[in-house]
Amino acid sequence: MPQSWSVTGRQFLRRGAFLRPGNPFQSLKPVLWTQPLTPWQLQCIQELSSHRLQRMPVQYILGEWDFQGLSLKMAPPVFIPRPETEELVEWVLEEVAQRPRVIGTQGGPLILEVGCGSGAISLSLLSHLPQSQVIAVDKGEAAICLTRENAQRLRLQDRIRIIPLDVTLEGSWAHLLPWGPVDLVVSNPPYVFSQDIEQLAPEIRSYEDPAALDGGEEGMDIIAHILALAPRLLKDSGSVFLEVDPRHPELVGSWLRSRPDLSLDLVAVRKDFCGRPRFLHIRRSEAQHGCPADT
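Request: output the structure for the sequence above.
Response:
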């Protein structure tokens, strides 16, 4: 790398000028365009470039990433939030704005996130809904610690309860009952079909927690647990919002029809920005049953 290469190493490394959305090279001050890097800065860039050549995700290399306008700390092996998940958050915000009945008695909804990871979903909802409260659960210690740190960085720690919890364990959700019932359950659960794991990019297979990805034979293992337990915690007409595999709308719809005792209906399916059916809206205690709306 030439010694006269312009843009300071600190700016490049800390802000990810070439790599992070919203921080292009052109946004740097003109004085930095011709300022040579110091030997220390060059060494730092070479070390981080070596990590990237080993297929480490850019988010882990930079140590932070943007999600819904928030700068979140990132650390392996915690699941890295994807751009599609920002669309899930936007849909939840639309629903809250359009349906006053999801608003809780304190002026904002009480939201449960299952599998909080870095806290991206929970913290972005808190930042957009000033009166809301969130219960965030995850079975991974690293995820719990990272969500707690990100909440403190964003000064949102007073409105979020972060609880280590494995929803697949019998009776585990009884720990949440004292804080319920909730208005919304939101989750980007592990939904990759087990046979598809080996087809994922090396960045994903080698660095991210497999437990945050592998959803079992049909990608339904954690989804089924969430749906089976949601009626115990949801208010009447409360909603579940899920990010899923494009094959899941049909599978989830069939699964719900086989469990009428849950009183849950798949009411809408939304496509992601690539046109794939990616998000599900499931509602409790709907009086009328019918085909979900494709939005």
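Confidence is low (pLDDT under 50) at residues 1-22, 287-291.
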